[in-house]
Design brief:
Blueprint (H helix, E strand, L loop, with lengths): L15 H7 L19 H13 L3 H13 L3 H13 L7 H14 L8 H17 L10 H15 L2 H13 L7 H13 L3 H13 L3 H14 L5 H14 L2 H16 L3
Helix pairs in contact: 1-2, 2-3, 3-4, 4-5, 5-6, 6-7, 7-8, 8-9, 9-10, 10-11, 10-12, 11-12, 11-13
Keywords: Signal
Pfam family, one: Sel1
Protein name: Sel1 repeat family protein
Length: 265
């Protein structure tokens, strides 16, 4: 079974945070063309960087985010780390991104803080880097650390992507013991939250255990919601299972699939 590898899988979970933060505190709003300097407050610098980025002025965005980050603005650190990870407006530098994510993670987060999303995202990004390592840097593959970080995010914050990645590591024995039953538990939680990848893998597992119709239904439902980059491996799983199933089971599974998202339990 082939499933995709994400370098920093949690980034998309919190992309809307930039829009939320940029739209708050109206008293701080200012025109992107107005003067801003490194002496400006961190939130003003962040908002300037956000507007500059949205207008395609990425060099100005990087500069503003960097000054705001130096003043302790977590959202700016997160945005800057993502830009380095993507090579977006800067030369791609995974080690630089790793260092910034590590700074965010080392700060911790207070319960209910508006920085919680950035903190969780940083942990997920670090897990992805530890899982693969960063060539040419001091960051080497550390599967145990990656698994621990996924477990922290999955158990403490209930993030479906972390639950899915943790389950994958448990199924393959990466960073610890192989545990199909524990993996199924995490996949079940993630698929109840609508995670297509978890739904596909969970469906494949129960199909192999003999729950043909239910397993096929989950795999079929996952295909309806998959991201384009993930659809191929999910389709492979479903087609392999369909080739082994009876015609009656296929027909019933296809009929049940639309109900999966409406009634996730």
């Amino acid at each position: 079974m082939q499933t995709p590898d994400w370098k920093y899988p949690g980034k998309l979970l919190f992309s809307s945070l930039l829009f939320v933060l940029a739209g708050t505190a109206a008293g701080h709003a200012f025109d992107i063309n107005a003067g801003v300097s490194k002496e400006s407050g961190p939130f003003d610098l962040f908002k300037f960087g956000f507007k500059a980025y949205k207008n395609g002025q990425k060099q100005e965005a990087v500069e503003a985010y960097r000054y705001a980050a130096e003043k302790g603005h977590t959202g700016s650190r997160w945005a800057l780390a993502n830009m380095y990870a993507d090579g977006d407006g800067v030369v791609e530098d995974d080690f630089e991104a790793f260092k910034i994510y590590a700074e965010i993670a080392s700060q911790g987060v207070e319960p209910g803080s508006e920085d919680t999303g950035f903190f969780v995202n940083a942990l997920l990004a670090l897990a992805g880097y530890y899982r693969k390592g960063i060539p040419g840097s001091p960051v080497k593959t550390d599967l145990t650390q990656a698994r621990q970080l996924y477990f922290q995010v999955a158990s403490t914050f209930g993030i479906p992507e972390a639950q899915f990645q943790l389950a994958r590591m448990m199924l393959s024995g990466e960073g610890g013991k192989t545990s199909t039953q524990q993996a199924k538990k995490w996949l079940n939680l993630a698929r109840k939250s609508g995670h297509p990848g978890a739904m596909a893998v969970f469906g494949n597992l129960i199909f192999q255990e003999g729950q043909s119709v239910r397993g096929l239904a989950f795999m079929t439902a996952a295909l309806d919601k998959c991201n384009p980059s993930d659809c191929l491996w999910m389709q492979d799983l479903q087609e392999q299972a369909f080739s082994l199933a009876s015609e009656d089971d296929r027909r019933v599974a296809i009929a049940l699939a639309p109900e999966i998202y409406r009634q996730p339990e």
